[in-house]
């Protein structure tokens, strides 16, 4: 069985959420069941890029991860696209036997048995600004499938007040899950430079409208990789 892989890159640092700053190799799966208006990874979503997605066996991916990390066990982050469309169990088994640990980023629309083998499942339900509608039954199935995982966290992208109000409802629905918020990045063209002050302004708005208004639950973080490299791919 081959997997459709848009890119494998690293080691870099995890730029988002609970594992921010951690040395990581990314395996980006091709294909997504969502079409978020502001997706920053369309090269792994839009079928116009399909020809760039490489069919790879789990052992080929594993060899590339080991090559990039020079055989030093680290965290491998499965992202995409939606990695939950595909079967990553064989890759996770190979990697774990070698001492590597696995994290996965998914929107929570498709559950997989291999969620239970992860050290970290990042569930990132999509707010109103994305134009997508969350199927909460499917989302709950993802949470259940990951009961054996090391950690499960929520990470929500915030563009505006409506997203923030929505995130607050989601937080109330899942009081036991740690919550990470990150400002949405409206500029996703890899060639367009990112303005650091604009990133800081969006972060300030988010802090003022959460912690600054007495909502003390969420962790507020920037996309660290965007701060460092802008919208470049493969970093
Ligand atoms: C590209 S997605 C791939 C994994 C999965 N499809 C998902 O959405 O969780 C990885 C992360 O990037 C976030 N993201 C995508 N576009 C973004 C943007 N323009 N600004 C901020 N975060 C973004 C997603 O919400 C998700 O948390
Ligand atoms: N450095 C870095 N951190 C990330 N965190 C989540 C990413 C993703 O696109 O899934 C990502 C990414 O593409 N690069
Ligand atoms: S779910 Fe993730 S990969 Fe899919 S379109 Fe939305 S942000 Fe992009
Ligand atoms: Mg990204």
From TrEMBL:
One of its GO terms (biological process) is tRNA queuosine(34) biosynthetic process. Its cofactor is Mg(2+); [4Fe-4S] cluster; S-adenosyl-L-methionine. It comes from the Bacteria. It catalyses: 6-carboxy-5,6,7,8-tetrahydropterin + H(+) = 7-carboxy-7-carbaguanine + NH4(+). Keywords: 4Fe-4S, Iron, Iron-sulfur, Lyase, Magnesium, Metal-binding, Queuosine biosynthesis, S-adenosyl-L-methionine. Pathway: Purine metabolism; 7-cyano-7-deazaguanine biosynthesis. Residues 19-231 form the Radical SAM core domain. Its EC number is 4.3.99.3. Binds 1 [4Fe-4S] cluster. The cluster is coordinated with 3 cysteines and an exchangeable S-adenosyl-L-methionine. Binds 1 S-adenosyl-L-methionine per subunit. InterPro entries: 7-CO-7-deazaguanine_synth-like, Aldolase_TIM, Deazaguanine_synth, rSAM, rSAM_sf. NCBIfam families: Bsubt_queE (TIGR03365). Catalyzes the complex heterocyclic radical-mediated conversion of 6-carboxy-5,6,7,8-tetrahydropterin (CPH4) to 7-carboxy-7-deazaguanine (CDG), a step common to the biosynthetic pathways of all 7-deazapurine-containing compounds. This is 7-carboxy-7-deazaguanine synthase. It comes from Paracoccus kondratievae.
